[in-house]
Design brief:
The structure is a single chain. By secondary structure, the protein is of the alpha/beta class. It has one domain (about 1-125): 4-Layer Sandwich (Metallo-beta-lactamase, Chain A). It is built from 3 helices and 8 strands; from the N terminus they run ββββαβααβββ. The protein has a 6-stranded mixed β-sheet, covered by helices on one side. Strand 3 (about 20-25) and strand 4 form a beta hairpin. Helix 1 (about 35-45) packs parallel to helix 3 (about 65-70). The termini are far apart.
Length: about 130
């Protein structure tokens, strides 16, 4: 882990930082592929994680989410159009994209600006 700025830690999950997760305060952002997600809880070096969030539903961002949520007992926050299959750590079906809400979260939630690199026009939602 490397502290990028105060309170933001980069966690490289692949050689040459090809895939990364980030810890922002107590929020873990992204989880890599399924194999990476299994190793990620150990790489957090005992830091507390209250929530796991994904930036978008590509396999190298959400693939390890189920392993992370199961190991840490956290809920998953995702953009509203993210299919529930992402919670299972699988690549979402193109047919389901845009029709399902994420991970059992209610339809209404606090909208937050999506991270840079997200698809144009994407909005994210946070729900507690």
């Amino acid at each position: 882990m490397r502290e990028v700025v105060s309170g933001l830690w980069q966690i490289p999950l692949a050689p040459r930082e090809a895939v990364n997760a980030y810890l922002l305060g107590d929020v873990l952002v992204d989880a890599g592929t399924p194999g990476m997600g299994k190793k990620l809880p150990d790489r957090l070096a005992g830091r507390p994680v209250a929530v796991h969030a994904i930036t978008h539903a590509h396999g190298d961002h959400v693939g390890g989410s189920k392993a992370v949520c199961d190991a840490l007992g956290t809920e998953l926050w995702a953009p509203p159009a993210t299919p529930t299959t992402s919670r299972a750590g699988t690549r979402p079906s193109p047919r389901a994209r845009g029709r399902l809400r994420c991970c059992g979260a209610p339809r209404a939630g606090r909208r937050i600006r999506s991270p840079a690199g997200s698809s144009r026009g994407t909005r994210s939602a946070a729900s507690r």
